[in-house]
Amino acid sequence: MSNERRKKSENEIQVYEVEAYGHPQQETDSNSSDSSQAVKKQRNVKTTENVPSKPIELIFVILSFIVMIITFPISIFMCVIILQEYQRAVILRLGRLRPGGPRGPGMVFILPCVDKYRKVDLRTTSLDVPPQDILTKDSVTISVDAVLYYRIKNPLDVTLQVMDPESCCELLAMTTLRNITGAYMLIELVSSKKALSRQIKAALDATGATESWGIRIERVEITDIYMPETLQRAMAVEQEARREAMAKVAAANGERDAVKALKEAADIMERNPIALQLRYLQTLNTIANEETQSIVFPFPIDIVQRLMK
């Protein structure tokens, strides 16, 4: 029963791929683990690589072969392109996508005059998001700077479905950055940059906008938060006043603890006269050292006690 369900789901996926691309997608080197799964998404451009060629197209292809043979071996430099391990090529013949998906890496053969190709780099690319002026939740105007890291996971989609992928990613990151940071207070933005970066990344993934473009956003990092000089001075004055208040509170707490300690010492000395005598002798020992110029006359404490009575 499970095998039948699995076959049924695979057939449904193949039917969807035929509708989306015109032919079932094969797992190649150009597809990452993310793009190998069938994702039901609406594509603006429907490809026609499996539609039979028109007679006029066949004529142009044959003429291109003839020109290539006549100009051989010079034409070989125009018909062979070398793709690096991280590159793929999407080839259009007379404006139509060639069957088989993207080519590469290695040596790829094209026909002169009828084939056009576009190289796609699969490596991770960084994109500097321009500083955005944002009004925070507590009505403070700040400027937030961020960096976006993305990579191309489907060369066909990034070539056929979007005109300028870098500009689209930049604008999408700008709008998402404004929407997310505008819902927080200034102190929250300054103290939790990493959590805010993760939230912006989750928001970009939740929209699913880049899936149809064949792009995967890997990371979003907030680099810096700029504040006006007047606001910086006001925050510095506020922090200085707060530190002074904390210092006064600490000094008051120290005086209170000292008074408590003196009271406890006085209570002990009152209950035990020998303790007072030992304290008196310790004071004399401290004063009568070698470097002092003071003259100390010991006075019996018993006489003082009689006078006090």
Report on this model:
- Helix 5 (165-181) packs across helix 7 (193-207) and helix 8 crosses helix 9.
- Strand 6 (125-135) and strand 7 form a beta hairpin.
- The chain is of the alpha+beta class.
- The longest helix is centred in the C-terminal third of the chain and has 43 residues, at 229-271.
- Residues 1-40 have low confidence and may be disordered.
- The chain has helices spanning 2-21, 55-70, 76-79, 155-160, 165-181, 186-191, 193-207, 229-271, 273-287, 301-308, and strands at residues 80-83, 87-93, 96-97, 106-109, 115-121, 125-135, 141-152, 215-226.
- It is rod-shaped, with a radius of gyration of 40 Å.
- The strands form three sheets. A three-stranded antiparallel sheet has the order 3-2-5. Strands 6-7-8 form a three-stranded antiparallel sheet. A two-stranded antiparallel ribbon has the order 1-4.
Q: Give the oligomeric state of the chains in this entry, treating copies of one chain as homo and distinct chains as hetero.
A: single chain
Distance between the termini: 108 Å
Helix content: 40-55%
The overall average pLDDT, rounded, is 77
Portion in beta strands = 15-25%
